[in-house]
Write a structure and sequence with these properties.
By secondary structure, the chain is of the alpha/beta class. About 40% of the residues lie in helices and about 25% in strands.
Length: about 375
């Protein structure tokens, strides 16, 4: 199978000021004393990956967490320097870091911009302070506005804001106010996700019976409201939960949905390289001690085709019929003809030179995608 030459790089920063009650990501609070050792280990892992995969050409870099903006700016800018030293960067790479409003000072954001970061993603979640307290976020809405203004002053023109719906106690009215407040700030991108109760989190134990959460009908109304409301403000929906002003779609995340190769660096990070999935362990001490071991899974042809379909169908534009044939040597109709006909008859999917979900199909996307898994 052919792959594109350019890759995306994800860098995991597993530190937080406080762990949110809904979060199941590998992250730790109160570990400031390990910052230096972790970033040193990260530099060592980058060298190891250079030896393993060679001088890759990098199209995008994304620092996520955790809270990447918690350590001093030199931690992130130093790692970006190491990446530039070890790998080849394309002409205009997208370089993003997540920022928490509580740690997005002007000095820090300016340092990121000067180092070559050209996109930031601010984790707001809600413009309602009571809802932020429910989520155990360390910021309030005022801190977010200061962070947002700092980003503009630092010269960022590509700013994403993360929003969350179906928060305990949230109403359709309070969610609409959040949408309106953020849309009027005119960011370039908005990611709007519904809260998912992840097993093993405090939220799961507290709300697993559904009490205190918006009911299913309200959740669906919030979902529909997001789509209609943001469209009125000039945001184009390009993925199930992502909206952008024209030209500001997140290239790094599109790479995941289009199954471009990506390299995951840092604790618990995942990679897809040479049709092999790599999953690093989540033991912070072992990682700092230089153990970068990973579980590996070589994907067979069927798995590759299934992923191409169910990841690509998250995109509003869907998947390319021509690209499928180029990659797999057969047409989508040959492989999935019965599924295409079935979903098309149900009004959930259309196909011509692309295969894509209808509005009705996007509303039941998980069902549609599961049909492509044998």
């Amino acid at each position: 199978m052919k792959t594109d030459r350019g890759v995306g790089i994800y860098v995991h920063i597993p530190f937080c000021k406080r762990k949110c009650d809904y979060c199941d990501f590998v992250s730790f609070a109160g570990k400031e004393d390990l910052f230096s050792a972790y970033f040193s280990a990260l530099g060592s892992e980058i060298s190891q990956k250079k030896d393993k995969f060679g001088a890759l050409t990098v199209d995008s870099v994304f620092f996520g967490g955790g809270t990447p903006s918690l350590p001093e700016s030199s931690c992130l800018t130093g790692i970006l320097d190491v990446l530039r030293e070890k790998f080849n960067f394309s002409k205009n790479p997208e370089i993003t870091t997540e920022v928490n409003p509580d740690s997005g000072s002007f000095e820090k954001l300016k340092a990121y911009k000067e180092a070559g970061f050209n996109r930031i993603s601010i984790g707001l979640q809600s413009a309602n302070d009571e809802e932020l307290k429910t989520l155990s976020r360390v910021h309030d809405f005022k801190k977010f506005t200061v962070c947002y203004e700092n980003a503009l002053r630092a010269g960022f023109t590509d700013i994403n804001v993360d929003l969350m719906s179906a928060i305990p106690g949230q109403t359709l009215k309070s969610y609409e106010k959040t949408l309106k407040t953020v849309a009027e700030l005119n960011p370039s991108h908005i990611s709007a996700y519904s809260l998912i109760l992840e097993e093993g989190t405090p939220f799961f134990e507290r709300f697993k019976d559904g009490k205190g959460l918006p009911d299913e009908d309200t959740d669906r109304e919030m979902y529909a409201l997001t789509r209609a409301f943001l469209k009125d403000y000039g945001f184009e929906r390009y993925e199930i939960s992502n909206y952008a002003k024209p030209g500001f779609e997140c290239k790094h995340n599109i790479g995941y949905w289009e199954r471009k190769p990506y390299l995951g660096l840092g604790l618990a990070a995942a990679s897809l390289m040479n049709e092999t999935r790599y999953q690093k362990h989540g033991d912070l001490r072992r990682y700092i001690d230089g153990d970068f071991s990973e579980d590996t899974e070589k994907l067979d042809r069927t798995s590759q085709m299934e992923e191409f379909m169910f990841l690509g169908l998250r995109l509003i534009k869907g998947v390319s019929v021509e690209r499928f044939k180029e990659l797999f040597g057969k047409s989508i109709q040959e492989e999935y003809g019965d599924v295409l006909k079935k979903l098309n008859k149900e009004g959930l999917l259309l196909f011509d030179d692309r295969v894509y979900l209808t509005e009705k199909g996007l509303d039941v996307a998980n069902y549609c995608m599961s049909e492509f898994i044998k």
